[in-house]
Design goal:
two-stranded antiparallel sheet; 2 strands; 4% strand; globular
């Protein structure tokens, strides 16, 4: 720390999940629609899960029906992403005995599409 030329601090801000994850041909994934604080180290994980589920939805509906795929993606992901985001924001992850499998054992390839 003594050798550091400049130390800066910035606050963490909580942001609620976005109410809408897509509009027209635009769809958001990861922190764009459900930003994570670093407390659970799940930001990139959620983005990867989002991308895997979105790819499955597009595969199921076909690229031409992207609006249906986007809705299916949001219905499939919103509850889980919101739960992880809320727990990350509160910084309560593993502060009480709990089974972490609900985070680590999620299978984006097997989850039922909404």
């Amino acid at each position: 720390i003594d050798a550091t030329g400049e130390v800066t601090k910035w606050p963490f801000w909580n942001r609620d999940p976005m109410g809408l994850w897509s509009r027209g041909r635009l769809v958001m994934i990861g922190d764009a629609c459900h930003p994570m604080r670093p407390h659970m180290a799940q930001g990139a994980c959620m983005a990867i899960e989002d991308a895997a589920v979105l790819a499955r939805c597009l595969s199921e509906t076909g690229m031409a029906d992207y609006a249906t795929a986007f809705g299916m993606y949001e219905r499939t992901r919103k509850e889980r992403a919101t739960k992880v985001q809320s727990i990350s924001n509160a910084n309560t992850w593993l502060k009480q005995p709990e089974d972490p499998a609900w985070v680590y054992a999620y299978d984006a390839d097997a989850v039922e599409l909404g």
